[in-house]
Amino acid sequence: MDAADKLAQLRTLGFEDALPLAVSFEQVRLERDAVKVIGTRPALGTLVSVTVVASSPAQGETAIERAFAELDRLAAILSRYESTSALSALNEAGYLTGPPPELLRVLERALYYHALSRGAFDVTVKPVLDLLAARLPANPPTAGELKDAAALVGTEHVAVRRKAIRLERSGMGLTLDGIAKGHIVDRMADVLACHGMLRFLIDAGGDIRARGIKEPDRPWTVAVRGRSPGAFADVIGLRDGAVATSGGYERFYDPQRRFHHIVNPASGGSPDLAWSVSVVAPTALAADALATAVFVLGPDDGLRLIERLPDCAGFVVPAGGADRRSRRWSRFSIWQEEPIV
Range of 320's domain? Predict the structure, then answer.
């Protein structure tokens, strides 16, 4: 088990990141007037890495530190693991007056992707996740208990207004795990750009946003994980865009891995038609939400959804059978062109 897996399990058990944490930096000289600066830090239940190509180490480190500061600011609003966050206050009381604009923005996009996916993406699955966390692995929930928890799921019962957010049914709760990390990565990208970074890659545990090129005539390369440990199903090149991967292997509640952190809103169960899903999109928020939706929908319906979106591409490692990809995936695949570096 690597460090990221250990962090994910601690977050599942309720442990929180101690903030602020120091960023670990390293530098690699590239062209004559450019240096690659890499900053890494535990955050958001995973390891977050920011790589920039800067004119000097000091310029790169300053930009990365500002990006992590933005991460901390947004996590304090959007994380369900932070007891003092705006999201936690909403879940505790069932309503929130004067919600932060960042929370409103993410919830508005969550409602959009809920409608786009015909309910497959749903941020109201927290009651199911709470049940799994409380009962597993020692005492698996019964089918009736899962059904009762799933009865509390329903985005249509979330009223989002500029002045207030209300959960209209007692016992409801929101989790932004399938969309907030993507939003945070996008905002980190904005901060890097504001500090003059034109070439960078942010990797927040599989939510990735890139800008520019890694080296002259070479895009940023991202490996798509295969079924076997250490194996890759594909390699893509990113210049200006994002990719996110969702999979049941990321966080699970029982040794048999029957219950994981992705929930089918209709049944309360864990989807099992796919092993992993990767989606390329213009923003990390879009890629994050769509990867979750496709995982819930399964390869057939999920890829049909992606085909409807002209700026997106999808790759599915199914539970069984050959890998599946959308028609536009070939625009990004460089498996035969680039080594993994």
Answer: 210-341
